[in-house]
Amino acid sequence: MASFEKHSLVGQVALVTGASAGIGRACAIELARAGADVVVNHRHSEDEAKETAAEIEALGQHAVVIQADVSVEADIVRLFDQAEEALGPLDIVVSNAGLQKDAKIGDMTLDDWNAVISVNLTGGFLVGREAIKRFRKKGVRSQVSPAMGKLIFDSSVHQVIPWAFHVNYAASKGGLHLLMQSLAQEVSAEKIRVNAVAPGAIATAINAQERARNEEGMLKLIPYGRIGEPADIGRAVAFLASDASDYMTGQTLFVDGGMTLYPEFRGNG
Ligand code: BGC
Question: Ligand 1 centre from 43 Cα, in Å?
Answer without folding.
Answer: 21
